[in-house]
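Quick one - first record:
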Amino acid sequence: MIEKRVYIFDLDGTLYEGSDHFDFYADRLLADVPEEFKEAFQQDYINMKDGRHNVMIGKAYDVIRDIVITVDPMTLQAIEAKTWEGKVRPEMLSYYGDSPLNFDFKNIVAIGDGWWLPFACAKHYGVKDCYTHYLETKAYMVSDSFNLQKIFGLKTFLKELKQNHPLVLMTNSDKEDVLRLLNELDLKGIFDHIISSAKKPTLTTQLFEALKKQYELPFQQLVSVGDNFINEIAPALMLDMKAVYISSHPHQTAHANLCHVQQISEWINSDWEIYK
């Protein structure tokens, strides 16, 4: 007998591949960077993508204080604070206390995926409004100019999963963007339940708890699939859920319920039955 599970998928960076949209976003933000900082912005962004900058995926950024925060991935507590240039500032930790950081998408942001690298860079160099350029990027992603990289075999894989398990899409993107992207990816009608504007990671745990109640299953039978460790993976592991982390960036967290793959296609083609 197949054990019923609920699979909770992220959208951006999970159900399609590529990073051209992040570069497009960075280019739009660059237009608002003061002229004297444009070259520094471009070099910092290149270094971020190459992993040669203090700001990197897996950390957090305090926009107000211009501080880069190292976060314990399982407790979401601040454990180290550095300046943009990388100087350690231990006295800054007192601002964040011993509680999980409150990621509010404005003043303290989790750099969980490629969207937040250009955002942090732009904020450091004085850009006030990033959201307008984010919307421009989302519009670009459903235009003829953008080559959305579909994942071979993904639709078939999801349809096979759906024969025995409910599929949930839970994303920070708004409903209109979600529907457009699903249409572009030929994934309309695949998901039993779509949660848009999810405000992860702030509401991740609350949403997982609601899904547990809705489907009347223990947390052990819920599986979170995503590319953002802070948004989708750490909250799942803390609830004793299973998780599939999709990232080319190395991660130090080892957990019995965690499967780490470079791309979702690696998971699709694996024989890890515990996650399927």
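second record:
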Amino acid sequence: MSDPKTVRSPTDQERQALEAMTREAVGRVAMRAQMILLSVRGYSAPTIAEIQDIAKVTVYKWIDRFDEEGPSGLYDQDREGRPRKLGPDAEAELERVLEEPPTEEGYDASRWTAPRLARHLERELGTEVHPDTVRRALQRLEYSWKRPRRVLPKPPGWKKRLEQIDRRIEETGPETTVLFEDETELRRFPPLRWAWMPVGEQRPVSVPDQNGKFFLYGALDVGSGQVITEAHPKGKTCYMKAFLETLETVLAEISGPILLIWDRASWHVSGAIQDLIEAHGRLEVMLLPSPAPEANPVEDLWRLLKNQVAANLEKSLDALEAACERFFEQLSPEEALRKAGLSAS
């Protein structure tokens, strides 16, 4: 009889924390995170126990702990009744220094790590603790270990422009179709992402002698969750016109005006596209401020696509294009809205 005990499905944030723990945490904590990720993939507790060379009861223990407390539950906990090794003063110091890079405290480093924070507490407060103790304190203080994101400086008036777009969307009635549109470039040289492989080995990803690319044009209907995509060789006015014609064909059965929101790419604001918009009877266009990629929910779908379909891919450019098409065919409207940050359900 198969073992039915598997861990609950982690949230996206919990999964990222688990993956970070396998890379950054020490010893047993990293192993526990690996155990949970294996359970998420469907491995049974007995199989995980065999892989990790531990008792089944240990696997069950950490699955239960994760189910109740999430990633923070995988750290060793202080014994009941023992005072915390890091008191309020130390926790306050952690929160203070994490507001600025280590260079502000005289360290020749660009980021705070648990070992560096432990050394800082010893230097400033005389508190000697293990880095794992610092990690547990950071979990209590609701900090997480994750990769930062790049941001571009915002031009004057960008926030006001976004507010105008938000108001315009709120003013639309049910007869109006609101579309966000964007393009992304996909290359034959694949983006490389973390993957499981044997310890001590680094799996190679074959690339062709010459790179290749195509542009994927996409529009998201914020009302229905429908995603419309079309591949073209590059970002160019003629291909933008072709995609607008595709949108018109797909939306032909929908009456009423269309509010189209996109960025200021040259093929969006060209004279030919402006003439087409003016000649169109029911098309209204609003331009996003530049640069503000985070304001376009289609960008979130592109990131999801590239992580799931393009990462580590060892196939032809045609196969990559076909994989992108299948991805959006299988993406439900509800999932599209959720992944684009337009629905919490």
